[in-house]
Amino acid sequence: MEKENEIQRNAPHALLSPPEILNSLGKIFEDADHLLNGSKDLNELDSQLRFLAGKKGKLTEILHNIHSFTPEEKKIIGSESNEIKKKIEGIYKNKKNELINASHNEYLLNRNRIDLTIPGVYIERLHTHPITAVLEEAADFFSSMGFEIVEGPEIETAYYNFDALNIPPNHPARDVWDTFYLLNGLVPRTHTSSVQIRTMEKKSPPLRVIAPGRCYRYEAVDATHLFMFNQMEGLFVDKNVRLTDLKGILEETVKYLLGAKKTRFRPAFYPFVEPGLDLDIECSFCGGKGCGICKNTGWIEVIPCGMVHPDVFKYVKIDSSKYRGFAFGMGFDRIVMLKYNINDLRLLYQGNLDVLSQF
Ligand SMILES: [Zn+2]
Fold this sequence. Notes:
The chain is an alpha+beta fold.
């Protein structure tokens, strides 16, 4: 019963004559060429091969009554069907290689694909912080006049921060500084003037130095004051240094850094200079007419300065009858504010890229 069913299934067509079989073989080859070469992937290719030349495929189906033919007919049909089978296998192999190569190429293509229509990734171009940029600009300017850049510690002894600068313990100026004191008696320096002393202790005149760095004062934070700020100290010591040297160099400095057109010097008191001065520039916010920033004076103080006090020279054992000098201390953050018309100092320290990227 099973056997009969098998035969039924394998013999859906009427029995074919030998010429019909040869004809069908040719038709199978044509189909094979079409079906195999039309396969889109390896799965389809394999299933087409099974359909054509598998155990229960078309080829087997056509040959199912070959046993009833003469030996001569069997020989011709057998050889022809072998030939067709080989050709089908040949087509299969070629197509298989083609599909494998194509999928590999597609993989490579996808892996290396660059889609030129996708918007690019914006890369933020970095630059130095405005304070650093102006410090570097100032350092270049002073270097061009033969000034050397020196540094000192941010945590100082009271001696270097006050005493050697002619500010004795009972001096009212010590209150003015509003200093942070550490428990061990040291102070986060209140100005870079301490570097003057350290430099004059180590080196003999002639001296031309600038000392940029951070300073600390016990200040309430507002638009123009922070508890930490940047200062640049300058010191020039030589024979025959005069007030006019100070004046000339500092006027050039504010012209170079701030484009200042109008300047003035006012007498001021600082214990470590005699005479002491303040260099003011005309207010760039109001053009000298008076505004909130210049407190309606039309002038903005930018560089406290003066001739080195003979008592300071005594501390560092420089003979004040032979040498004279001038010193100045620029509040650097203030210079940056004036240069870029920034009305709130805190903006420079908040790390806000919306602000910083404008420079
Ligand atoms: Zn003003």
